[in-house]
Amino acid sequence: MKLKITFLLFVTTFLTSCQGQNSKAVVQNLDVKNYAEKLEKTQNPQLIDVRTPQEFASEKINDAKNINWNGTDFVAQVEKLDKSKPIFVYCKVGGRSAQAADKLAELGFKEIYNLDGGIMKWNASGMAKPSSDKLVGMSPDDYQKLINSNKKVVINFGAEWCAPCKKMKPYIIRLQSELKDKVKIVRLDADENKSLVNHMKIDGLPVIIIYENGKETWRNTGFLSEEDLRKQL
Question: InterPro entries annotated for this entry (predicted)?
Answer without folding.
Answer: GlpE_sulfurtransferase, Rhodanese-like_dom, Rhodanese-like_dom_sf, Thioredoxin-like_sf, Thioredoxin_domain
